[in-house]
Design a protein that fits this description.
The protein is mainly beta. The protein has four domains: 94 residues, Immunoglobulins (Immunoglobulin-like); 93 residues, Immunoglobulins (Immunoglobulin-like); 81 residues, Immunoglobulins (Immunoglobulin-like); 40 residues, no CATH class. It has a five-stranded mixed sheet with strand order 2-10-9-5-6, with no helix packed on it. Strands 12-20-19-15-16 form a five-stranded mixed sheet, with no helix packed on it. The protein has a five-stranded mixed sheet with strand order 22-28-27-24-25, with no helix packed on it. The protein is built from no helices and 30 strands. It is found in: Membrane. It comes from Cyanoderma ruficeps. Its main location: membrane. It holds the Pfam family I-set. One of its GO terms (cellular component) is membrane.
């Protein structure tokens, strides 16, 4: 005899979610660069990520890897210094207790075009006589060839001699030995390979070295003038950089600027003495000493008060000369008088 029925209703909640990897795409990397292959997976619990390499090696975050490859915490596979031998199909595996998902990513490795590591455009200043080095470091696979083009259009390759003092080292650095202002201009470094080219341009400005001026020519050290003659003293400076300023110092100590020629019309007695011609620039000072002697105008110091009379008894016709006072014996004036008996 049936006694009855019992029923039990059970609700099952599945908390686990199988992994799902977001869609990927093929990746291209340049030879020598680091390739990053992403793998983003969802799931509950969070799935563990590992990668299956083209050679069959399985790599996970806990694995040491081959030294160049490793898996980051977010699941990205990093391959450093890739080469054409690293190209192929890489498979990302996402696993949790609810299941597994996978995604294949194709890696293509191509030759890297040349790249110049220094500034593409640079201005460089130098001083005459210095040795200047202009670097040009390049990178690329295959190894790029490097040459420089000088301002006059001459191409210079490593260890090639085109003129004294100009040399390109194997590392691409251009050496300019004993640079001169005429070396100023644009220098272009060009790197080329089968995959492309790159370049950099250096604008070079070479200025003359600062130097002390020199007195190139000047009037004779001693100048003698007669009364009424014009005074003309010359002084020319040369070789100074920056160009020097010329000035004269008069005997009374007064300085005044000049183009190099000193002219005094109708010089007087106080103009006689020492004259200094000086050339100055930022480096220093040089001077030339010139002397001026000036003959003076005759000047009678004493005059007779009246008629000069002779002494009785002189021989008739005898002449006596009277010497009047003067400043210079060479300019004395003789006055002759005839004294009668």
């Amino acid at each position: 005899i049936p006694l009855g029925a019992a029923r039990l209703l059970v609700t099952l909640a599945v908390l686990a979610e199988p992994p799902r990897i977001a869609g990927g795409r093929p990746l291209t990397a340049h030879s020598g660069d680091t390739a990053a292959l992403p793998c983003r997976a969802r799931g509950s619990p969070a799935p563990s990520i590992s990668w299956l390499l083209p050679n069959g090696t399985r790599l996970s975050r806990s694995a040491a890897g081959s030294g160049r490859a490793g898996v980051r915490p977010d699941g990205t596979l990093l391959i450093r210094a890739v080469s054409v031998y690293d190209r192929g199909l890489y498979t990302c595996l996402a696993e949790n207790p609810a299941g597994t998902d996978s995604l294949a990513v194709k890696l293509q490795v191509v030759a890297a075009p040349p790249t110049v590591l220094e500034e593409k455009r640079q201005s460089v200043a130098g001083t005459a006589g210095d040795s200047l080095e202009l670097p040009c470091t390049v990178r690329g696979k295959p190894e790029p060839s490097v040459h420089w083009v000088l301002p006059d259009g001459t191409a210079v390759r490593p260890l090639q001699t085109v003129r004294p003092g100009v040399l390109v080292f194997p590392n691409g650095t251009l050496l300019l030995g004993g640079a001169a202002p005429s070396d100023s201009g644009s220098y272009e470094c060009i790197a080329t390979s089968s995959t492309g080219s790159d370049r950099r341009v250096v604008s070079l400005a070479v200025r003359s070295r600062d130097t002390l001026p020199k007195i190139a020519s000047a009037s004779q050290e001693l100048t003698r003038l007669n009364f009424g003659e014009r005074l003309l003293l010359n002084c020319t400076a040369m070789d100074g950089n920056p160009p020097p300023d010329i000035s004269w110092m008069l005997p009374n100590g007064t300085w005044f600027p000049s183009s190099g020629t000193l002219t005094i019309y109708n010089p007087e007695g106080h103009h006689a003495g020492r004259y200094r011609c000086a050339a100055r620039n930022q480096v220093g000072y040089i001077e030339k000493l010139l002397l001026l002697e000036l003959a003076q105008k005759p000047n009678i110091l004493t005059r007779p008060a009246g008629l000069v009379k002779g002494v009785s008894g002189e021989t008739p016709g005898n002449q006596r000369a009277g010497l009047l006072g003067c400043r210079s014996p060479s300019s004395c004036v003789l006055i002759f008088s005839t004294f009668l008996k």
